[in-house]
Amino acid sequence: MKIEIYDTTLRDGAQGAGISFSDDNKREIIVALDELGVSYIEVGNAASPADASILREVSDIELHDATPVVFCATRRPSQTAEADASLRFAAELGIPCVAVVGKSSRYQVENVLLTDPGENLSMIRDTVRYLRSRGKRVFFDAEHFFDGYGDDPTYALEVLRTAYDAGAERLVLCDTNGGMLPDVVGVVVNAVRTRLPDAALGVHCHDDMGMAAACSAEAVISGAVMVQGTVSGIGERCGNCNLSTMIPVLQIKLGFSCIPEDRLASLTRLSRKITEEANLAFDEHSPFVGGYAFTHKAGMHIDAVRKRPRTFEHIAPELVGNSSDLLISGMAGKSAYQAVLDRIAPELHISAGSAEFSAVIAKVREYEARGFQFEGAEASLLLVVLEATGIRPRFFDLLTFRVMISEPMSVNPRSLDAAFIKLAVPDGDSVREEFAAAEGMGPVGALDTALRRALLPSYPSLDDVRLSDYKVRVLDSASETTSSAVRVVIESTDSHTVWRTVGVSADIVDASWQALRDSVEYYLYIRKREENSREH
Questions:
Q1: Rounded distance, CA 194 to CA 297, Å?
Q2: How much is the pTM?
Q3: Class of the 397-535 domain?
Q4: Domain boundaries in the chain?
Q5: Which residues are within 8 A (CB) of 60 and not within 5 positions of it... i.e. 6 or more apart?
Q6: 111 contacts 67 by C-beta, under 8 angstroms
């Protein structure tokens, strides 16, 4: 059975705190969602000036699977639909579908719209009929439906009947406050199906109790044919139903068809891309698509997964474009070390019992004693392995660097820090010195830019690399080696892959330098390894 996926990232998702999309972001997201294979993309709100340009342009974007939708509210009380500027705009756009939101709760009608229930029904009827007369497909979003049904089921059902009789082809039941439990949603959806057996139902759930995905799944099981949500669950307050979770739940676990089968493996990549376009840090603990979704740390878990992945993995991660990961830590045994070495450094052919294997374990434990932690910083771990085996390449050597911190941005918002760096870079049989300076918002940003600027003449591919996240933690330890030390983890990306590196020092700039250095060296090593693999 086909379940329509209706994405509202660009409208409801954009209402989340701290989220703002440029028109370029919106175009990229629209193309990515179409690539994923969703059924509908809600492009924007007809009443929002910020959405006007993309709403006009979307008909020029070549879409293969998705249908664009414009969102608008019903006409105002005591006004005709034709006189409503937002409705006229929606009707004039080259967008085939319009999602109309209207009140389905008597309480909301009387206390928010400040009108009577009968006028609300007329507002819904007039709006849907007007848009249908202009050749538009209409979906009706019944705002606060589950709360309204709980207060007055007769009126809530009358609202749906009015929209349906006026020509709405989807009736979307909204848990606008996000306060429903899944069993309640199931009961209500079944009740609506009994009263309106010919209507196609959708569901729109907010995540204020962390149950938006569960409520949406229950709605589908009970007969809904459309699920509305956002990528990564972004949206107002606690967000919306997370489509990155919902799609694989419906498709893999429940056996429904949501997106083309061959697109499911792109879910992890596209979830990351869209979250990046939203300028948000990706939640690595996200189900299915997170970097930690299939990551194992405990020795018993690692041993079991190596033997039979299904022992601690509920699906094959490759189905959604993800992969398993095993972490080396104080909990890890030889089996875990072997598994990680086989994965991150297969070209070294290090086997348990060998001198190289013992050297790696000793070197990792040496670093851990100094406060390093390689969970989630596997790029640095690979470099430690290369160091332990005596083959860590030196793409450059640091001669000196200096960071100058200007006045705080709270005093001068336009202030920038500066960094100067001098490196020794191999050049055939000789070595040449490279010097670079850069400004940045913060000392780490300035140092990162200066480092890559100095290396670009020798390694031009570094132009694609950028710092995407930075975290610092003060190490609380009684040990003299780590008291007052900080651990810095940075995340880097070349827009295709993501890697993390770690540095530890009593000096935060030094710790940051270690992580930055590792980030660049890891990237260059992986590029060199790939080139050698292609040659052979």
A1: 49
A2: 0.75
A3: alpha beta
A4: 4-277, 295-388, 397-535
A5: none
A6: no
